[in-house]
Amino acid sequence: MTEGIDWLDVYGRMLRIRVFEEHVNQLYTTAKMPGLAHLYIGEEAVAVGVCTALRDDDYITSTHRGHGHCLAKGASVDRMFAELLGKEPGYCRGKGGSMHIADQEKGNLGANAIVGGSAGIATGAALSAKQRGTDQVAVCFFGEGAFGQGLVYEVMNMASLWKLPVIYVCENNLYNEYTHYLETTAGDLSQRAGAFGIPTREADGQDVRAVYEAAREAVERARASNGPSFLLFRTYRQHGHHVGDINRAYYRSKEEERIWSEQRDPLKIFAESLAGEGKADAVAFERIEEEVRTEVADGVKFALDAPYPEPDEVTMHVFA
Amino acid sequence: MSLPSPSPAERQITMAEAIREALAEEMRRDHRVFLMGEDVAEAGTPFKVLSGLVEEFGSERVIDTPISEAGFTGIGLGAAMTGMRPVVDIMFGDFLFIALDQIANQAAKVHYMSGGKLKAPLTIRTTLGATRRSAAQHSQSLHAIVSHIPGLKVALPSTPYDAKGLMKSAIRDDNPVVVFEDKMMYTVKGAVPEDDYTIPFGQADVKREGEDVTLVATSSMVYTALAAADMLQRSGISAEVIDPRTTSPLDSKTLIDSAIKTGHVIVIDEGYQRFGVTAEIASVIAEGAFYHLDAPVKRMGAMDVPIPFSPALEDLTVPTPERVVEAAEALCRKGG
Fold first, then answer.
1. What residues of A are in contact with residue B111 (Cβ under 8 Å)?
2. Which residues of A touch B83 (CB under 8 A)?
3. What architecture does CATH give domain B12-191?
4. How would DSSP label each residue in B24-50?
5. Which of A1, A30, B283, B324 lies at a CB distance of 3.0 to 4.6 Å from B228, suitable for a disulfide?
6. ipTM for the whole complex
């Protein structure tokens, strides 16, 4: 069922997120970016794999670690950077910032700085799709930490009860901020959605094709009005909780980090697999990297050169 | 309880009927409008405000939910952001606290945070008001809490006429609106035209004209103020009663103009007095009419205690006409 997918393009979209995030980190360390950002490096296969199974008019909601989801759903690099720098051409005119990027044209209903906070929005978008008689689906991205929030369980219950076309995508990157998820989790995450009668599928979050396959099946089920699904992907946040979280030894070992970035990196895994299958050679990878690096560098320049919003913007958009 | 009607010839219906009519008319007019909440369908809510709607519109548009205020408010918000116009029912105002993240962190901010791209035309119906012997977790008047949050509009009608017009405006508004209905007032009757009409937000209504003292009153306290005004008239004090009808936006001008005219103001509201609606309105008036006031603006809110169950205690917590009269007489004497 993976015919028709341009896997090299998929690789390029994963790489775009990686390079984007590297530049975000650089903007932070060189004090060019206000505030903080939560990097998605190491988790790229989840966002890209899931969004590859979606249409432009399908919905997503995202998290504080949302740059990857936004880019995977089709956001452009330049307006993303502009938003991160609080500039006027940003996706939210500089009013949302890193944790609130929304891109209505691509069905992105917004990243959300409240853990689990967008679960209602995604489920409501699914209810709305059903009421309007469309076959759109909604994907709710969240981390394993969101399973500490009651809202997630409330909306899963209703989604299953009403057979809503929503897909709950949990990125288990192992850490609730600075605490290993096993210290905060009783029972088994994979059993949580089953209690509501929602089918669950677990897959390797570092393997973009496995992610895509799981998502494709869930999307098909949702479009056919058969109700919600729960996808659980094991992945890893290679950087800290946010760009300023440098000394991490008190909550995880350097050895663990090394293993995940050397042996479990989703880009390396995918590149090796594509090369092994003869789908791409060194020249092709260089060309993709060159394109991505140029696009991202241009995006950073665009954002740095862009104007800040005018002062009178501060009172605009409080009300529609 | 009754009020001078806008036009005496018009039919009299109850507050509950007026709200139901507003909802039904909007649902007929606009297929995007739907209702959801606990026991809204066959039960028609414990207050029977929604009786009959599921029969007309079906269970697809009058949706009974689990007891999950945060969950269904969030779902309402998501539906609002993607082309629907939901009316979410939060049975008791006290339960707003359960859904407050979805209301205050999500719905209120989505338009601003997205730089004006996303909209949340979500109406939240809920209740306020004590003296129903429902004790501390079913009696609070929490409109100040939501009025505090930028991005939310807040309406609290005192008459069937206002209830219908404000509900229609709420549903047609592109912003999240919280409408507070006093659960003791559902059986109050008043004149309501059969024609389609709306009442714009941010427009106070002078419920009774007067010269000597301004009584600014909200929701059920409008009746308390009107009863006080009748009593004051007998002792030669002419009271003006003004109902702001919405706290966000607030019609400051009408309040300030009346304060300038009378020079004496009492603000009466059923929310807790401390940091409450009475405090905000008193300060708006003090800032706008200071040099015309003969005395400081007097605040009368609910007593700052959890609402007690015992009738002997509960009745003490809410302003009464007698206490308003006492305050008005003291104010007018003091001011000369």
1. 317-320
2. 128, 132
3. 3-Layer(aba) Sandwich (3.40)
4. HHHHHH-TTEEEEETT-STT--TT-TT
5. B324
6. 0.96
